Amino acid sequence: MSPVAANLEYIKARIEAARQAAVAPAPATHLIAVSKTHSAEVVREALDAGHRLFGENKVQEALAKWPALKAEYPDAELHMIGGLQTNKAKEAVGLFDAIHSVDRIKLARAIASERDKQGKNPKLFVQVNIGEEPQKSGVAPRETLALVEEVRALQLDLVGLMCVPPFDLAPAPYFGLLKKLAGEAALPLLSMGMSDDFEIAIKFGATHVRVGTAIFGARDYSKP
């Protein structure tokens, strides 16, 4: 068993244990293996181990490795979890099965335009700047429901909310707030929780947890 396969097995066991310990977990919790900065060869170790759900942060990096991987593993599912520029909507809609970073109506309209051109309708999550941090993307919590309604009016496949809590504060209150907002918006999916806090997110009903370092190891940001 490769190190990546062993790490996947370990993380999935932790997910199941957290679900068993939670009072009201989501009906299912899906593991997004975040493969940003890691090579296609490393990603293939996870694919060969049977994992099929992956996340990337940058369109250009994903374009460099995923078309070939998807051709080899046609049942692989790729999620865009990083910030998305409007001018990258064409490539994102063409490549990704889901986009977790819809944070403004201009971007939603660009995605809708590409849906109409390409005939592809990726699942969408509205990204909430849950801690209202100026350096982070995302719609403010108080503006989330209004954006949700605007995105729905475009008849896009909006399925949930996503957040990244402040790294230096306890995440539980932020996960609780995202769950509350999703309930108010009648959205079933919650993309929240990463390598250091996914078990806490599961307690608050996470349906998708985004884990990279704990699976693939430390990232090499010196690579383009």
Report what the structure shows.
The chain is an alpha/beta fold and 224 residues long. It has a single domain, classed as TIM Barrel. It is 43% helix and 17% strand. The protein is built from nine helices and eight strands. It has an eight-stranded parallel β-sheet. The longest helix has 19 residues. The radius of gyration is 17 Å and the shape is globular. The protein starts with a helix and ends in an 8-residue tail after the last helix.
What is the fourth-level CATH superfamily?
Alanine racemase
CATH architecture: Alpha-Beta Barrel
Q: Structural class of the helices, strands and pairings?
A: alpha/beta
Please describe the biggest sheet, giving its number of strands, its sense, and whether it closes into a barrel: 8 strands, parallel
Provide the β-strand percentage band.
15-25%
Number of domains: 1
Mean pLDDT: 96
Q: Given the C-alpha coordinates, what overall shape results?
A: globular
User: Could you list the spans in which at least 5 consecutive residues all have pLDDT below 50?
Assistant: none
Q: How far is the first residue's CA from the last residue's CA? A: 29 Å
SS summary, helix count: 9
Per CATH, the class reads: Alpha Beta
What is the number of beta strands? Answer: 8
Question: Helix proportion of residues, in percent?
Answer: 40-55%
Strand order of the largest sheet: 7-6-5-4-3-2-1-8
The CATH topology name reads: TIM Barrel
The SSE order reads HEHEHEHEHEHEHEHEH
Global Rg: 17 Å
